[in-house]
């Protein structure tokens, strides 16, 4: 896949990113990376508001859980991939880490992350850079912790991204992945499916005034993404050990954790 360069797609006339037919399985689209980039550029300014409203404020609790799962030690180097507007990156920057980097594929998201950084107190000032999760611009073994929150399903090839996470982690380094899941308790699952599939796409689209189809993509991308065991299997094939998952908020969110294998 060609490495996309930063663009400002918001400057173009608004147009749908996804057709109904493509949303049957957005992960199979060969132009998925470019479309995801355009989609997030379109909703960047309302992204935080929609996250807070439609998760009932739980999104920040999920990120705090991820920071605890990462077990950051004094002086650790932390990489937050698909950092978006920087919420998780900024939480890491309040730990005892020695270096914190937030990386994202969408320039508009990074602009907001840098603005947020300027008005919030941190222990270490985080860096925000543009980059592709499938081709990380870092040396082998550069980090002690790698995280990605609600971004792994948006990558064109998750297998390549996980391989890159393993490459840039030191042996014994920790990988933490937050992703949406499917509640196992049937009544909660039915309620969540109705909420995410019918209510949220309409209200979030109204709030964001979105024309890209971003909030129609969200439930479809969750429904078509790999199940929990498949994720653990992928981690095991990619150089990680001790893979586990934790169910958060009745399984609406899942936190995966694994350790980079090696001496």
Which structural traits does this protein have?
alpha/beta; 9 helices; 19% strand; globular; 263 residues; 40% helix
The CATH architecture assignment turns out to be: 3-Layer(aba) Sandwich
Reported by name, the CATH topology is Rossmann fold
Helical content (DSSP H or I, runs of 4+): 40-55%
Q: Number of helix segments?
A: 9
Structurally, the number of domains stands at 1
Count the strands? 7
Arrangement of strands in the largest sheet:
3-2-1-4-5-7-6
Summarize the biggest pleated sheet: 7 strands, mixed
Strand content of the residues, in percent? 15-25%
Order of helices and strands: HHHEHEHEEHEHHHEE
> Which structural class best describes the helix and strand composition?
alpha/beta
First-to-last CA distance = 33 Å
| Overall pLDDT metric | 92
Q: Could you describe the 3D structure shown?
A:
The protein is α/β, with parallel strands linked by helices and 263 residues long. Helix content is 40%, strand content 19%. The chain is built from nine helices and seven strands. Strands 3-2-1-4-5-7-6 form a seven-stranded mixed β-sheet, sandwiched between helices. A hairpin with a 4-residue loop joins β6 and β7 (253-260). α7 packs antiparallel against α8 (214-223). The longest helix is centred in the last third of the chain and has 23 residues, at 186-208. It is globular and about 45 Å long. The model is unreliable at 5-13 (pLDDT under 50).
